[in-house]
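Exercise 7. Predict the structure of FtsX-like permease family protein from Schaedlerella arabinosiphila.
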Amino acid sequence: MYARLAIRSAKRSWVDYLLYIAAMVILLAVTEVSGCIAVMGKTAGFQAASLPVLIAVILIALVGYINAFMLKQRARELANYLLLGMEKNRLSLLFLAEFLLIGCFCFLAGTAAGFALCRALVLPALDRGMDYLKMTPSALYARSLPHTFFYFCLVEAVCAFQLYGRIRRLQIRELMYEKKRNQTMSRTYNPKKWGLVFLAGFGCLAAAVWGIAFLPEHSAGFLISVAAIPLFITVFAFYQWLFGFLYALRREKSASLYQTNRLYILAEITSDFQTHAILNTVFCLCFLFSAMSFIVGRFMLRPELALFERSVQQWMGLVQVSLCVVFLVIYFSMLSLQQLIQIRQEAESLRILYYIGRSALQLRHLSMQQTAVRLSLPLLIALPVFVPCVPLLNRKLNCLLPGTLHNILFRFTGEYLLCTFLFYTCYFLAVYLMSRRYME
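Solution. The predicted structure, encoded as tokens:
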């Protein structure tokens, strides 16, 4: 019975499944690329095993969000199964088994796509400059596949455990209204406290950057190793404060919110404000890691800068640039899919807006605003943190590098921002066109 009803549901909700499969394939392709880089790094004598671990941590947050979306979309269907007499434990296991089967298909497609991308972009660069790394593409795929499979199983196990517990806790009545349920602010949640934590973290980060720029090398080295801690605290606290503040602002129902589309966009952002705060923290860190990887990689690929043996330095530069691409793909792809998921969840609201007099042109304009806000939210703290650090760090590098490389950090930063702008434009247009077609 469950199989027949699940197939019927899949036919009705094929767009939801398509979004789920697309997200999983992209994430697993990124995992496969990171696995290939780790295997090549180990073969070349470098340690790159931490990269797949970092990607796996990001995947757990993103896959958990996608699973929660699918549960919301099918919650009423699960409630109907319970009303028909199916045991909740059996229903939960069957629901998880369904996602496991879809995950296996996504694993095969994602690893194939990731390896094809790695072979097209990374291996040609290795052939040009790193002849000492002797490994056939088939051998690389055979060695990277177990790594990807291990992290795939880890992510699936953690997310399945979270999803199973959530289904077990929900009663039939709660399942019936799960799709329309919004997160509420708990009594212990205080945005002002998060604002103070943000200011403290930002102050520590500013002090660390100032120390790196002006203190001697032996002291600056220690600050470089610990600067990531206040950076993470700053980003996390900022989004906890921001979404809490926006949620409180929506509850105040100020008259200014009723102008244009402000209230609608604000309600859409804060409907799941705690989840969105965590996701935007992940996306912001992806952007910052991508920027740092690009700049370090470009430094390593400069022939004038001889820090290591030539082939070793070229490998390190290639790895860093590959990391930049990986984090940018995660950033823009997942934000774009998140926007498409949000449009799917708002189908009824958009239909109501159309019925009460909003024209198709106004709805398309609303879609553009939502897409721009969604893609820009992680940059609200990333750019204020990243851009002011560049002049200070450039001053330090000018003291260490030869005159031919002075102010080169500004050039690398400009190249990265241009690359980000191109990614932003392409993904914005793609999401807008897909959402416009869906609304029509």
